[in-house]
Amino acid sequence: GNSVTQMEGPVTLSEEAFLTINCTYTATGYPSLFWYVQYPGEGLQLLLKATKADDKGSNKGFEATYRKETTSFHLEKGSVQVSDSAVYFCALRGSGGSNYKLTFGKGTLLTVNP
Amino acid sequence: DSGVTQTPKHLITATGQRVTLRCSPRSGDLSVYWYQQSLDQGLQFLIQYYNGEERAKGNILERFSAQQFPDLHSELNLSSLELGDSALYFCASSSGDANEKLFFGSGTQLSVL
Question: Per residue in A3-24, pLDDT tens?
Fold first, then answer.
């Protein structure tokens, strides 16, 4: 079945540091890939997505490129802010059929210190 | 605000009891998903409904059941509760299209004592 593996946290950075959170996946066909973010006490929110190979999703300074050859969708940001502190989830939605459920990684806690 | 409403926000109960979690999807969304979030298992998909019909089933225990009503709200019923059922339960909704994003509620924190 489909699965997502993302780097274990927690990740602690200083403000303006560069961020990378690794995500790799296992799926048949051509899944769509997502990053969701969960701020303290809230539900998950979509951060960015990519629906086909070589697509780059971007939002709020975050980027991730769908790499089919390495089955990866790593999240990057050039300069993090304290307000980026949250849990980040990589997810995929399988292709085909009428089942649109998302399969999530276990999440990576990011803490950004001033 | 995602537009998805979950009640209650917190629930404390004892082992062996039964509880009902409620979810109201975003206006116009036909699809409802239930997820369980725990420290050891992460986010686990439980079940999906689309316009009142069960669409997909994930790692949902036989002690758990769900339904979606004609007004599209959904309920997740958890019975014969065990300590290990303590978790954050999320509901999400979407329009049901393949690439539509999911909108998540704030969750119900269940504590089984």
Answer: 999 988 899 999 999 999 999 9
